[in-house]
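As a warm-up, study this chain.
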Amino acid sequence: MRKAVRMSAASLALAGAFIAAPAAAQAAFTASTAGELPVSTGSLSIPASAMTTSCVLRNGKNLITIAVDLTATSPRSTSHPLNVYSPDGKLRYSGDAAALPQGTFRVPGNESAMTGTWVFNIHDEYASGTGVLLWTGQTLSGTIVC
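Now compare it with the structure written out below.
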């Protein structure tokens, strides 16, 4: 019987050690710090003042010009998609305004006889170095009546 009592006492002592051990391992943190994350906002909008449009009659044909002052666009933009639609609603140009000579689109001679309302829209885009599109600015739309 003494052996059983000793084993029971040893078992109780071992169980008590397991219960008390986690409490001894707990820690308390008394200091705190906060990290700083600098953030800011940017704008990818093309001001209307960056656009110059004209329709001039020369030799019986309308000379339609859309010029984009790329220095007036957002300094963070990486491209300036421009779409131009003729009066019949067909897309006549779609591409980066920066790829145009001096940022100027001119209607090809065979299409320049079309009179009516030409529509254009343009916006700035920002892409990462890997070409992944990250932000698209607000679209600036306009018309040219010939």
